[in-house]
Amino acid sequence: HHHQQPHRTSYHFQPPKNWINDPNGPMIYKGIYHLFYQYNPKGAVWGNIVWAHSTSTDLINWEPHDHAIYPSQPSDINGCWSGSATILPGEKPAILYTGINPKNQQVQNLAVPKNLSDPYLREWVKSPNNPLMAPTPQNHINASSFRDPTTAWIGPDGEWRVIVGSKLDARGLAVMYRSKDFVKWNQVDHPLHYKDGMGMWECPDFFPVAKTGRKGVETRVYGSQVKHVLKVSLDDTKHDVYTVGTYNWQKDIYIPNKGSIESYNGLRYDYGKYYASKTFFDSQKKRRVLWGWVNESSSVDDDIKKGWSGVQAIPRAVWLDASGKQLIQWPVVEIQKLRNNKVKLTNEVLKKGSIVEAKGVTAAQADVEISFKVENFKKAEILKPEWKDPQLLCSQKGTSTTKSGSVGPFGLLVLASNDLKEYTSVSFRVFKGQHKYVVLMCSDQSRSSLNSNNDKTTYGAFLDVDPTRENLSLRSLIDHSIVESFGIKGKGCITARVYPTLAIGDSVGLYAFNNGTDSVTITKLTAWSMKKALIN
Ligand code: DQQ
After folding, report:
1. If you average pLDDT over residues 376-394, what whole number do you get?
2. Which has more pLDDT, 405 or 348?
3. 400 pLDDT exceeds 80?
């Protein structure tokens, strides 16, 4: 099986075959986690979209169920697109989702469980009132850009609110609706938020985060204890960007923090491949959990040959950083249940050009944490003012020995073949900026595969950390064709898809390296083989 399908994942969520995209309606109900997702029952490319459904008690092992929502009424006959779940009072889940009607217009529909005593919520009934929100000649909504309702929240006035992603010309819009009964929805005369020049806002997500601590809060919470986050998925660049700000429920407006960047260059959940994500409040563990779709980087022909496309990233707990300026993301703790056969290295000095192997792990399927201590920053390269794009900087600077800086690149070589003909490098590099040191994190896929049909774009991010005060730490979740990397305990994330031809199965190595001219010390490296999860 693995011989023929070397790139299928072992602990990342996938159905047995076919195309998947956006996570939909994640929630917890009676102690069971639900994940729905956009799915093509007929093939490995996008189309014929239904809501496939799986449940879990630990967010790691998943059991499949029949499709929950599929075209069956005029308001969704041409497709059941993305949407979200809301838990109504009395523990009653409800799903709002986008349907494509016979005129190929995008409209919003409601579905509720047929039988609340079935903890798996296997059958869903659609409202006879569908569609509940639709473009009309009066409301100036673009019928081909009106989709992806969020989880709704109830205001202190007892009225429900929801936003739907949209655009008018190049203006990204979070169109807002209100309702007293969850069935009759009235459009609010202004959007919750908008921004010119950002294009279509797909899959908006709007939620509060506690100002202090890591605990999540329910979606309806507002006030001085919390900030709000608005995430939008930018159709033009396929990036999930967000701002942190303030929500005024009386005026129903959201105002991003002063100084936040609202554009294609804003804060991203992930600086690699990660899209159409959404969060839910886990009332059992009091945390907010983020799901995101990770598309392939292989060719459509290869996708059809392998018979599948798309995985879901490992769910991440999210909370507000102490700075109040950004989110921190970390894989849910449950993933640690899969850790096995720990190997460890401590206090290992890496001189320029050194490579050490973390022997004894199944490196195709591993979880690794490493932290580096830099002795001397004095010779750090000066960051030129024009070096503003971290992705460009990573691809220009590379990670090879010929392009070494003084402080870095150092990091991990993952999914590496024995002869190092193939590897993906995840690394740090430190620069001297105007008033502070600047830490660059890179995930370089350029050497990841001998197969040239793959997209091997290098990804990069600047991380908000003072490297003189904190060791530079990195965690990577490696799973055959995906590498999810978390820099500085979740301050910056980069997810990459790679398709090695040599570094597969047992022929995979995991290494730490330093290509900077100055030595660095690995204070600690811990790597685990990962067990296979039971998925679908
Ligand atoms: N995917 C869905 C849309 C959404 C897009 C269609 C984002 O609802 O806007 O499959 O990936």
Report:
1. 93
2. 348
3. no
Domain count, the chain: 2
Kindly state whether residue 502 falls inside one of the protein's structural domains.
Answer: yes
Rounded to an integer, the average pLDDT of 424-442 is 95
Q: 308-309 and 18-29 as β-strands: parallel, antiparallel, unpaired?
A: parallel
Note the pTM of the prediction, 2 decimals: 0.97
Last residue of a domain, one of 132, 147, 176: 132
CATH number (domain holding residue 96) = 2.115.10.20
How far, in Å, is the centroid of ligand 1 from the Cα of 354?
45
Q: How many CA atoms lie within 13 A of 508 on its CB side?
A: 28
Tokens 């697109």 map to which residue? 81
C-beta 21 within 6 A of ligand 1? yes
Q: Give the strand order in the sheet containing 472-479.
A: 339-350, 520-530, 365-374, 472-479, 482-487, 492-497
Identify the residue whose tokens are 């079935």.
Answer: 118
CA of 51 to the centre of ligand 1 (A): 12
Which residue out of 100, 105, 203, 205 has the highest number of ligand 1 atoms within 8 Å of its CB and is therefore the one to mutate?
Answer: 203
Locate 52 and state its tokens: 């496939």
Q: Do 331 and 486 form a contact (C-beta atoms < 8 A)?
A: yes
Q: What residues make up the domain containing 48?
A: 19-132
Residue 307 region, left (φ>0) first, then alpha (ψ -120 to 50), else beta? left
- Give the CATH number of the domain where residue 480 resides: 2.60.120.560
Determine if ligand 1 sits within 6 Å of the CB of residue 203.
Answer: yes
Q: Is there a catalytic annotation at residue 22? A: yes
147 lines ligand 1 (CB under 6 A): yes
> What's the 397 CA to ligand 1 centre distance in angstroms?
35
413 within some domain: yes
The backbone torsions φ and ψ at residue 394, rounded to the nearest 5 degrees and listed phi first, read -65, -40
